[in-house]
Design goal:
The complex is a heterodimer of chains A (474) and B (287). With 474 residues, chain A is an alpha/beta fold. Helix content of chain A is 33%, strand content 17%. Chain A has 19 helices and 15 strands. In chain A, helix 6 packs antiparallel against helix 9. The longest helix of chain A is centred in the last third of the chain and has 18 residues. Chain B is an alpha/beta fold. Chain B is built from nine helices and 15 strands. In chain B, helix 5 packs parallel to helix 6. In chain B, the strands form three sheets. A seven-stranded mixed β-sheet of chain B has the order 10-9-8-7-11-12-15, with helices on both faces. The chains are: A alpha/beta (474), B alpha/beta (287). At the A-B interface, strand 5 and helix 14 of A face helix 1, strand 6, helix 7 and helix 8 of B.
Chain lengths: 474, 287
């Protein structure tokens, strides 16, 4: 990686690496991989920021964090103020600092990067540092809250979109109640993203902060079953409702053998391992198949998370089975890099045809079709096409299908006058989050289809601003 | 929330508890279930609702001790709380006036079948209930069922009570007698539902079964509960739990239910060593 390379002539300060757990060691534990900056590293990294008059970095941020200002405060050693600066726009900085794809957002537009040097200021790492620092030195202080406006908003789903919206509204004196179907708060942050990338304790601390500010949370509360969105508006008299239920309906390939034992959706595999703590089994009651040889179908972040989780559960061999090549993998480069370092194998240009099972109904292998890259498709990526007659077999006992999620129909189908598109996603204005139904906003994966945590946070923020405008609050 | 208000053993290893869950009690419809966790490190398990009292805000749960959670719950006392109860989940039973409805259950299946039978009865159907169990001690809810059935037929596999034989034989008997029946609802262990369908299919009697696959979230997010119905993959939690019995792949369901046999045993053996576990009489629990 270019990160460690010194510039040849003027010896400039290089972009500071974040310390990480050793790959061999960490592939056997669930502790966080990245260890974060210490004060010195943070000061050094912040000193690289040019404090541009026209901060392009901010344009790359979906929630418009005042990046130059907070980095300036880091430079001055005032880490607590820097954290507050971030929190003005981002209620979940400890999470964003860990899971945001900064390389394609703020850091992509950083001037240090634009000069073609590929060495942007490590904004994400600094965000993580200041937010962690503030949490560690927490004085219990909460931001000054305005007088209650008497308005109240119901939020369906406690994932990144809903939590962000809750934070933005409560700071403006709007009461917020968040309804969550699962027993823990955080949505995909607690069931999907593994402990080693985003410790649950961090999600809990961010949620607690919102709770301290007055956000009310209701778990085990299935909107659409206990009460509908219409009930929330009419019976419970919420002034408006935000739907941020995520893209929680796993897709399968619809190939033979997908219902064999040992075949999981990534959602199930990750939910068992993360939310239900199957990695602690039998101390925790929920089991998960600890495969010896594991195949993961798909090449996105969720596929990488699944593969790395399988390794940590003790698998001897974990393979990503992907139709295209390393260049087309949709996962973040950092995630792929981590997976490779830890020993995940990549079976590229391979498309699963069938999962083979034994008499007892357990998966024993996957038959694949060899692919090659053809002409570019609509997405601009070269389309994988089968190489005639070339098939092969991979032996495995566990298969994890990580090819994406569709919209979960539970809330849309139980809400009157709410338009959905042909994929079942709620139709909402991408700038405001407004839906076809009066007083109802929506955002995050339920609108866009499976995307990233920060885009969901951006949608939550935009919806909050739109609601405030409608409420005539600035 | 979710405090245990009443609790008793109603059979060997069979428990009944009334818990406080006002919001679920109000929203619950026949055929729907809940997913619960007994304690903070517990598994999420689906459990059918045997009865409810929306006025008092309570649910009645009935369960047989088979795995760690159900054994653990067997040791819980009045005043203790379940950490999580989520629901109502699944689609409610399609209830209308069909004519004559035959409700068939085996053992613990009486618990989920009771609210369905009651709803069918309330809708004006003539209800014939066939209540079966391995032996007399395992027969539950006979009095409740009697109140919501026009005819109640009881059978035990060992002949210790009622008709000597399987529920399928009783059902076959009704068919042979050319009794007019418009719908069969069968709830119980998979082999029993499968056997019922074998009988009703030949008689062309439409049959609804309520499936109990392994679940995690119960809202369609994980797909653990995949079942094949009419050659199509469905999610038991949101597409079900009730399906057309003629179309269900029972063999696949049986295999999938056995997926965690090994870990389940490890977990249960471990629980036996705990102070709570020592209170249980394994296997089958104390009467």
């Amino acid at each position: 990686m270019s990160e460690e390379q010194q510039q040849p002539k003027k010896p400039k300060i290089p972009r500071q690496k974040m310390p990480e757990q050793d790959p061999i060691q960490r592939a056997q534990n669930f502790y966080e991989v990245a260890l974060g900056y210490d004060n010195d590293l943070a000061l050094l990294e912040a000193s690289r920021c040019l404090h541009c008059k026209k901060p392009y970095c901010m344009k790359g941020c979906p929630v418009e964090v005042d990046i130059p200002d907070f980095v300036e405060m880091v430079k001055a050693g005032d880490f607590i103020s820097a954290a507050w600066k971030v929190k003005e726009k981002n209620s979940l900085p400890r999470i964003a600092g860990r899971v945001c794809p900064q390389e394609s957002q703020c850091e992509a537009t950083c001037v240090l990067n634009k000069k073609g040097k590929g060495e942007p200021c490590a904004i994400g790492r600094l965000e993580r540092f200041v937010a962690d620092y503030a949490a560690k030195h927490d004085t219990g202080e909460i931001p000054q809250l305005p007088k209650p406006t008497g308005l109240k908003v119901g939020v369906v789903g406690s994932g990144p979109a809903g939590l962000t919206l809750a934070g933005a509204l409560i700071k403006k004196g709007v009461a917020v109640t968040v309804f969550e179907a699962l027993h823990e708060l955080g949505g995909v942050l607690v069931y999907g993203i593994p402990e080693f990338r985003l410790p649950k304790a961090i999600v809990r601390s961010e949620v607690d902060e919102l709770r301290k500010m007055g956000v009310e949370f209701k778990t085990n509360w299935v909107v659409g079953r206990i009460e509908t969105v219409d009930d929330l508006l009419e019976k419970r008299k919420f002034d408006s409702v935000f739907i941020g239920t995520g893209a929680g309906a796993p897709l399968f390939l619809r190939i033979p053998g997908e219902n064999l034992n040992g075949v999981y959706s990534a959602n199930e595999f990750l939910t068992r391992s993360n939310l239900m703590k199957a990695y602690l089994f039998p101390e925790a009651d929920t089991p998960v198949a600890k495969g010896r040889r594991v195949c993961v179908f798909g090449g996105g972040n969720v596929a990488m998370d699944s593969a790395r989780t399988a390794l940590r559960l003790g698998a001897e061999e974990v393979s990503i089975v992907y139709r295209r090549t390393m260049d087309e993998l949709p996962a973040r480069a950092e995630e792929v890099h981590h997976a490779v370092e830890e020993g995940v194998k990549f079976r590229l240009l391979s498309s699963p045809l069938e999962i083979v099972g034994n008499e007892a109904g357990w998966a024993v292998g996957v038959n694949c079709q060899k692919m090659e890259l053809g002409e570019p498709d609509d997405s601009g990526r070269r389309r994988p096409v089968p190489v005639p007659g070339e098939t092969f077999h991979i032996e495995c006992d566990t298969v994890i299908v990580a090819i994406g999620n569709a919209a979960n129909p539970l809330v849309p189908s139980t809400t009157k006058q709410l338009d959905v598109n042909k994929w079942g996603n709620i139709v909402a204005d991408l700038e405001t989050g407004k839906t076809s139904k009066a007083r109802v906003w929506a955002g995050g994966d339920i609108v866009t289809g499976a995307a990233t945590v920060i885009l969901a946070m951006g949608a939550g923020r935009k919806a909050a601003l739109s609601m405030l405008k409608e409420f005539s609050i600035d | 929330m979710f405090e245990i208000l009443e609790k008793d053993k109603i059979g060997p290893g069979v428990n009944r508890a009334v818990i406080s869950a006002p919001e679920i009690a109000r929203a619950h419809r026949p055929g729907q279930f809940v997913i619960l966790r007994a304690h903070a490190d517990g598994e999420r398990i689906p459990l059918t609702v045997a009865d409810k009292d929306p006025g008092k805000g309570t649910l009645t749960l009935i369960w047989q001790e088979v795995g760690t959670t159900t054994y653990y719950m067997g040791t819980m006392c009045v005043g203790e709380k379940l950490v999580d109860v989520c629901g109502p989940l699944g689609k409610p039973t399609h209830v209308e006036k069909f004519g004559t409805v035959v409700s068939v259950c085996g053992g613990i299946g009486a618990a989920p079948l009771y609210p369905i039978t009651k709803a069918m009865h309330d809708a004006g159907n003539h209800v014939i209930t066939i209540l079966g169990a391995r032996t007399e001690g395992l027969l539950i809810m006979t009095d409740d069922m009697k109140k919501v059935s026009d005819e109640l037929l009881i059978s035990t596999d060992d002949g210790s009570f009622g008709i000597h034989g399987f529920v399928t034989q009783v059902l076959q008997d009704l068919i042979d007698k050319k009794r007019k029946m418009d719908l069969c609802v069968a709830v119980g262990p998979v082999p029993m539902m499968r056997a019922v369908v074998n009988v009703t299919k030949k008689a062309n009697l439409p049959t609804v079964v309520s499936l109990n696959p392994i679940m995690v979230d119960g809202t369609g997010m994980c797909g653990a509960c995949r079942v094949e119905v009419g050659g199509k993959t469905m999610f038991g939690c949101v597409d079900g739990p009730e399906f057309n019995g003629f179309d269900v792949d029972f063999e696949l369901l049986t295999k999938r239910l056995a997926m965690y046999k090994g870990p389940e045993l490890i977990s249960l053996n471990r629980f036996k060593e705990t102070p709570r576990g020592c209170e249980c009489t394994f296997p089958g629990g104390a009467a």
